[in-house]
Each structure stands twice: as C-alpha cells, then as structure tokens.
Amino acid sequence: MKAFETFETPTAARVNYINAEYGLKSWLLTRDHKRIALLYLGSISFFFFIGGLYAMFIRLELLTPQGDLLSSTTYNKVFTQHGIIMIFFFLIPSIPATLGNFLVPLMIGAKDLAFPRINLLSWYIYLLGGIITIYALLAGGVDTGWTFYAPYSTTFSNSYVIAAGLGIFVSGFSSILTGLNFIVTIHTMRAPGMTWFRLPLFIWAHYATSLVMILGTPVVAITILLLAFERVAHVGIFDPAAGGDPILFQHLFWFYSHPAVYIMVLPSMGVVSELIANFSRKNIFGYKFVAFSSLAIAVFGFLVWGHHLFVAGQSVYAGMIFSFLSFAVAIPSAIKVFNWTATLYKGSISYDTPMLYALGFIGLFTVGGMTGLFLAALAVDVHVSDTYFVVAHFHYIMVGGALFGYLGGLHYWWPKISGRMYPEGWGRFSALVIFVGFNLTFLPQFVAGYLGMPRRYHAYPPEFQVFNVLSSAGASILGVGLLIPFIYLLWSMRYGKRAEPNPWHLPGLEWRTASPPPTENFLVTPVVTWEAYEFAPPEEMQVIGKFKEETEKA
Amino acid sequence: MQTSWIPFVPESASTVSGRVDALYFYLSGVTVFFTLLISGVLIFFVIKYRRRTPYEIPRPIAGSHKLETLWSVIPFIIAMSMFAWGAQIYFQNSRPPKNANEIYVVGKQWMWKIQHSTGQREINELHVPVGRKIKLIMTSEDTIHDFFIPAFRIKADVLPGRYTTEWFEATKPGTYHLFCAEYCGMNHSGMIGSVIVMQPTEFDSWLSGNANQQSPAVAGQQLFQSLGCVSCHGANGEGGRGPALAGLFGRRVFLTNNQTLTVDEAYIRESIENPQAKIVSGFGPIMPTFQGQVTPEQLIQIISFIKSLQVTSPQSSGATPAAPEPVQKTQTAAPTTATPAAK
Amino acid sequence: MNPGANLGAQASCLQLGEANKGEIVNLAESHIATGDTASHPALQHHFENMEQQREAGALGMWVFLVTEIMFFGGMFLAYTLYRTKYPQAFASASNHLSWQLGALNTGVLILSSFTMALAVYSAQTGKRRNQVVCLGLTIILGLTFLVVKAIEYHDKYVDHLIPGRLFPGNPFNPAKVHLLPGASSNNVEMFYWIYFAMTGMHAVHMIIGVGVLSVITYFAARGRYGPEYHNPVEISGLYWHFVDIIWIFLFPLLYLLGRHFEHGG
C-alpha cells in the first residue's frame, strides 16, 4: 500500500479537538466546526429518537383497521409530528450539519468553515427552533400534517399551528446559514492545489445542497410566517373566505419542500460516491458527470414542484409541463446510479459496514427513484397521489436514500470523528437488519397504495390489513436495527479500538491528519498534488506492484 | 384490458381504469427490470471484484463519454415514453364529455353531500348507472377535500370557493370505495362512502323511488325568485337591467374592462358574491353582493338553474312585473366608472 | 492591497473555474511574501491572509442577499397574483396610501445609500472622520425613514385600515377608502395585509440595518477600519443598499400603480 503523504506530526496526535479543552463552556461556546458537528450530532439524534417514537405509534395504530389504540385526533397529531420532526429536525440537518460540518473543511484542507461564529449561531438557531417545536408538541400538538395546507391550518385546525410553524421558521435560518457557510468555504478556503475538479464528490454534493438551502428555505420561511400571521390576524392571502387562494400556499410550500427532498438526498449521494470509490479503491467512474449531475439535480429540482398539485386543481397544461420536467430530473439521478455501478467494475471491493450501506443505498434509491416516475406520470399519479404509494415512495428516498447514506457516512468517518473504531461485526449485522426491516416496512405500502388506501387514515377498510400488519412487523425489525448502531457507537466512544489516522488506507485529505484531528485540522497547510480518489498514480503502479510482491512473500 | 387475474391491482370498473392500469404495468415492468439489472450487476461486481489481498490496488479507469451518453439517452427516451403516455391519458380525461349527466358534490367536514340533477340527494353514497357518462361538479364548504374512487382510478381535490370536476363512465355493476384523499382534519378517515354502480334499469327505478325531491335547478329557480334576482334578470333569465342569463352558460361575453371570458361556474359564483369584479359590457355596476347570503350548496342550485335556462324557452311571458325595487346601493360610484379602463 | 479592486474581486469570487483556482494557489504562495497582511490583528485564525478573509466576507454577504431576494420573492409573488386578480380593489386601496410620504421616504433612502457609499469609500481610503460622519448620516436617514413609516402606519390605524383582528378595538373598516367599482372590501383588506407584510418586513430589515450600522460606527470611531481592513463596513454597505433596492421596488408597486383609475384615465 502506498504510504500517503500526511500533514501531521506524530507528537501532535495527542492533542486533538476533543481533548484540547474541557468543560461545558468549551463546548457550548466553541467555534470549532468539528465540535459544532458533534453538538448537531447529539441534537439530531435526539430528534430522530422522538420522530421514531411517533413512527412506532403510527405503526401500532395501523395494525388493526379500526382506530383503537389512539383517538383520531391523537393519531393526526402523531403523524403530523412524525413528519415535522423527521423532516425539519432530522433529515434536513442530518448529513450537512453533522458530517458536512465536520468534513467540508477537512476535505478541502481548510482550518475551519469561513464563518465559525455563524456556524455556532446556526446550531443555536436550530436548537431554538427545536425547542419552540417541542413546546408546540407538549402544549397540545399540531394536527395539520407536515404540509400545513391552508385553509385547514389557518382556519379549521384547533391545534398549536403557530408555535409549530414558528419552530420551523426559526430552524429554517439555521439551514440557510449552514448553506451559506458551505458555499463561501468551498469557494474561498480550498487548500493550495485543491482545484474544483480535485474536490471529493462529497463536496460537490454539499455545494449543490447548499444552493438548494439558500434558494429554497427563505421561500418556505416567508410562507409559514404568512400562514402563522394569517391565523393570528384572521385575514389573509391563503384563505378563500378572505378572497385568498389556498393553491398559492401549495405552490409556495412545494417550491421549497420539493427541493427540500434534494437537501436530504444530495448529501447522501455525496457520501455514497465517497464510499463506493474508496471501498473499491477506484477513482469514481465519470467524475465530472457525477459532480455536475448534483448541480443539475439542484437546479432542476426547483422546476418540478407542481407535480405535487396534479389533482389539486392546477391547469392541465401546467400539469403536463411539470410532468415533463419531473421526468427530466430523473436523468441526473440515473446517471449517478450507473456511474456508481461502473465504478465497482474491476475494483477491489471490501465488505466493510459503510460499503454495505452504500450498496443498500443504490438498490433502495433505485426503487425510490423509479417509483417516483409513477408519480410523475400524470394518469397514474391521479390514482396514486395521496395514497400509501406516495408514502412508500418518499420513505424509499428519505430512509432508503438519505438515512442509509447518513448511517454509511457515520460509520465511515466514525474513526475520524471519535478516534475509535466501531465493532465491525455488529456494524454489518445491523446494516443487514435495517435493510431487511426497511423493505418489509415499505414494500407492502406500494401495493396498499395502488389498491387505493389513502394516506393519513386513522382507520381503514379491512382489506388493507394484511399490508399494514406486514408493514408494522417490518417497522419493528427496522426499529431494533436502528437501536443497535445507536448503542454500539456510544459504546465505542469509550471502549472501541483506537483508530489510526488512516484506518481505511485512503488518499482523501481528511485521512492525512490525526484521528481525531487537532483543532486546526492540519498542522501545516496541505498542498494538494493529487486527483480525487487517486489511489495509485500511474507512474507509481510499478512500485506498488513490487511492494505487493514483497508483502505476498512475507 | 382484462386485468382481474393480476394480483395487487384494485378492481377496474370504469372506462379509464384499464388504460391507467396498462400504463401502470408498463411502469412496473420498467422498474422491475432496472432494479433487477442494477442490483444484479451490483451483486455480480461485488462478488467478482471482491478484495482478495489487503494490498491490491486496481488500475484506475477514467470513464467513458460513450457510456455516459448511452445511459443518459436511453433513460431519457424511456422517461419520455412514460411522460407521453401518462400525459395523453390525463389530457383526454381532463375534459368531461359534453353529454355527461351532471351530479353535484359538496364536501364538508366530514361527509359528502351529493345531489343528482334530477333532485335526489344522497350522503356518502353515490348511485350511478353503468355505461353512462357522469360528470361531478364539486365544491367544499370548509377545507380542502378530495373525491377519490380507486376502482375508477380518478381523484380530484374539492376546494372551497372553487368548482372542480371529474368524470367517469362506470363499466361494471358493484359497490366501490369512495375516499376523501386530502387530509381534512379529525375525522378525515371517516369521510368515506361507497359508489354503487347499477344497471341502467335498476338505476332508473332507484331514481324514481327517490323522486320526491326537488331538482337543484328547481330549487335554484326558487332561490332566484326569493333573492330578488328576477327583478333585474327576468323571471326566466330573459334579462332587463341585468344581462340576460338564458343560454349564457358556456358563451363568451365581453366585459366593461375590454376583456372577454367564457361563462362558467366560477364566473357565475363570482358575479353573485362580488358582482362588481367583472361586469358584462353594456351594464352598470348596480348589482348588490350576495356574499354570505347563499351557502355553497345554494350557489350550486342557482348555477344549475342558470345552466338550465335555454334561449328558446318559450315560457308564458307573464313574468310578474314585481315592482322593480331600485337597487341603488352601489350606484354612487357609477358616474366616474363608465369608462374605468379607458387609457 | 488595492481598494479599487474590490468590486472586481467580489465579482471574480462568484465565478467557478480556472481563474479562481489560480488565485487560490497564488494566495498561498504570496502568503509568505505579504507577511504584513497575514499578521494583521483583525485576521481570524482560520484564514490564511486578509485577502482571503475579505473575499469570504463579501461572498458571504452576496449569498445572504440571494436568500433575502428569495424571502421577499414569496411576497412579491403573492402581490402580483392578487393585484392581477383584484385590480380594482388593489387600486382603490393603493390610492389611499400617501404617495407623498412614500416619495419622501424613497428620497431619504436613496440619499442614505449615497452616504453609505461615501462611508465605504472613506473606510477604504482611511479617512476616519469622514467615515464616522457618513455612517452617522446614514443612520439618521435610516431613522428618518422609520419615523415616516411609523407616521404612515399610524394614519392607517386612525383610518381603521389595520387588517384582520390584530387590534380588537379597531376592526378593519374601509369607509375612508374610496372604493372603485368592482372593489370588494374583503380584497381591499387583503391589499392592506400585503402592504403591512411587505413594508413591515422591510422595516424589520431597516431596523436590523440601523443596529448593525450603529455597531460599525462605534468601531469606526475607534479607528478599527482602514485601507487594510474594512470588510465589515463594506458588507454592511452591501446589506444597506439591498434594503434600499427592495424599497425601490415596493414604492411603485404599492403606492403608484393604479393611480390612473382614480382620475378616470
């Protein structure tokens, strides 16, 4: 194995960003992107846990066709809160705010993000938004669905819509600031020699994600703010009783909330690009195509929101245009999937846990993406929109896509983040359990959806029970599967094997410093002289060949 | 297309459901094919190129423009075929046929109120005959609902303050689910019902068995009189100080602001609730608003009455010349507005 | 450090590609040569040199302004939609706004942009006294704007034109508004709702701007900014100009459009 050039000195490894300072204050007032990433990691795990509890109640309630466990009011609140927590407080910040925050500076050879104080501020804003939302949940909950459709949310709902909306509004600024920080950092803070086309694809994906964050989030922020005011003042632009148009709300809402899906899945695609290339020790097949497809997804993602309104009373022609564009946005995703697959060709593939997640991602994302085509096809969408088909589709994207990427990335960079190795056997086992549980949960929902089971139903006709029982069974497996990594990752922070600086033997910049890295990341400013994923420069192949012979002899 | 033998497909009971299913099968086929292809290749590569020694480093492969083009163009072509097929069915179904029977649907938390053009009312049930085209004209009294009949593969949102339509022609007698598919609050999952498709003869006897109810058009006529519309529009919509209403529906009219529009449900509703918004050319802004005085259901009845008015209807012209009560409330603005948009 | 090159540098950092790539490498190489800027007390630890820090700050503000455009964009969309849908109501309501006060405020803001630009220039050329005076003038003009705005809001309150039930004792009543034919009071209320939402949001931005400028003025008075380090002045200037530009759009849209309806055309 080629010994990669490193930018650390052996003695420096003892002082790292974790043990550089002690005390609560050193964490709560830190400006180190790595510590902020850990603060985020803790808080999003908390919200993920809450969201997961709600999911459990949903699946328990739906075991039987009658509404027997929860009252319909409670059930409506539970699915609403599951959506709000999971989307706004887990999925959207998940990869960017934790892995992205930790790794963007490391991977481009910078000492920190461009605006460390704004970075810390974004965490506090996120926390404030979270606290307001939790207040809404504890005070009595909110029952509008995470989509907050007017006029139900403005006029008819008797729940804490304003508080929940305010929480989302506030947390939106945290994601705007994160996106802003990434864009500026990637533009201005790259190490000498780190050209745009030497950037790891994780960075490209985060650049594209940041574009969506800064362009989309303000729109949903103002929309939710107007909605909240409309509820307070009983006047408005969304309520038809006041001459407003509820469809305007849907347009404004989906203008953000469709691209928001790409906020969730683009970073995940970035992680998978890293995993696939690194765990097969190959440069990525078609680097520029994968890089630009991220940008293409971010841009096209803003043009397809109308496909959420095919049955909402939108004009036929608008529907056809949005349908066309929705099919077009599928192409960059397809390009990515094909390139990942081609990267494996003649690689040297290992079966470490992160790779299992990456492979799982490709399979599940393919299903999620292809079923998206059903929803883009107008005539079929008329039948399946607002049914469990949609529920299954977006869970394949958000869980099978975003969550798998997140878990894969977390395992992959865990040695760098914590300085400890996670237990590999448990890792592989839980990845398998999660994969099986996930498919058992959501595959039956495609069928139930096409058969006509509407979503957000508290009680349902008995013929759908078989699918719901399967789904609930799968959910319990999935739940257990998700608890395992939660436990062993915590365990490994103390008892795990100490990690080397470069445990996977990879060329990326983040692996050329200590694990965990020192506060300033690199002791000397790195100078990049290699391409991304360059395992063996052609001129060194010979040397490596000799090295290989020797190790085989030994 | 006969699909009843295929598992996991709901009952197909309308003229369009088979066409939607065909597209669905095509999409499913492509999905299964590509999923199997990609996972197959993935598994094959993962096994074939597994790491055999810890130090091996494979040769880098740069990529291939040919392959990239290939796997951009082929998916694009397949995607376009799906788009074209889906759009075609959607487009053809977007326009209800002219000769369809009209049924009025009003959604409210949490029930469906349905009225046939012959007057029969139903709640959470919809009786329709096989083989006749049925057009639903729908509106909501409160929040957004959605009228979804899985067996017919149709669905459309039902909006407050608007009229949406959907249409179908049932092909098979039976009882089918009717769901509200847009979340509408506490009892959303209870806003369900059934669509009962009958043979035409059975349906006719069902109709006559429930015939003691007023048709919406007749009810609308009564409202037309009780609300005083007759004083300006004439007892049979022949017109007067207000525009003639007979034969108006579906025609294009010129407005005082030099625009034209086609008279539809939405325009009639707007003219009742906000009469000054779009005034037909040649008439003054003298009509008072009826906002808040008529319920969405009554609006539908009035609209239905106006639709039923034919130009040629040779009614006895004994239109009672009810003392034309001067409707002058808003006329203060009239002098300045004779030519409001003149440039 | 050439202050004149600021605009060029801001523009170039928005471009991807070769030029920028070269720049970064050069920066790192020049890092040793230009040791003077690298040791400036205002240089934050994670930047290599002042140039990089300045570039990051400026780009950050531009990106932030992009999000602001999207933020206001949602309201502009709503405005456009309903203006088209209810032209008479919007014209009636708009005619009741005082275009004189609006025009006065427009003038005040344009003037404040001018003084702001002067402040940035003074910072770049190291004229400390001028800097403080110009910043002070900008703040005074900003406050003038807010006072005029408050007078306008108060007029609306007196005329019962606060939409909805925000003030329970003072419900919306368009009696003072000269309703054009076709204008329903409901839609007039909607105009005022959009008016208050847009100008209110703009005023919030003004207040933030005045706050930021006050802090900047304090530091300027203490001589923190000079030819080598004037980032904060520059980027608050960008923000201030942006808030002005929003008003330049709001004024004609809210105050002026539809005036001809009143005069019979």
**What's the Cα radius of gyration of chain B?**
28 Å
Estimated helix fraction of chain B: 25-40%
The number of helical runs of chain A is: 16
Contiguous runs where pLDDT drops below 50 for at least 5 residues of chain A: 542-547
Helix and strand sequence of chain A: HHHHHHHHHHHHHHHH
Uncertain segments of chain B are: 313-343
Strand order of the largest sheet of chain B: 3-2-1-5-8
Radius of gyration of chain A: 24 Å
Distance between the termini of chain B: 59 Å
Report the sheet with the most strands of chain B, covering strand number, pairing sense and barrel closure: 5 strands, mixed
List keywords for this structure.
heterotrimer, A: 554 residues, mainly alpha, 67% helix, globular, B: 343 residues, alpha+beta, five-stranded mixed β-sheet, 7 helices, 12 strands, 19% strand, elongated
Structure notes:
The complex is a heterotrimer of chains A (554), B (343) and C (265). Chain A has 554 residues and is mainly α. Chain A has helices spanning 24-28, 33-61, 72-108, 116-139, 152-156, 161-188, 201-233, 246-279, 287-300, 316-344, 353-376, 378-384, 388-418, 424-451, 465-495, 541-553. Residues 542-547 of chain A have low confidence and may be disordered. Chain B is 32% helix and 19% strand. Chain B is built from seven helices and twelve strands. Chain B has helices at 17-48, 65-94, 200-209, 216-226, 230-233, 265-273, 296-308; strands at 101-108, 111-116, 121-123, 125-129, 133-140, 145-149, 154-158, 164-169, 174-180, 193-198, 252-254, 260-262. In chain B, helix 1 (17-48) runs antiparallel to helix 2 and helix 4 crosses helix 7. Chain C is mainly α. Helix content of chain C is 75%, strand content 0%. Chain C has ten helices and no strands. Chains A and B meet through helix 3, helix 5, helix 9, helix 10 and helix 11 of A and helix 1, helix 2, strand 7 and strand 9 of B.
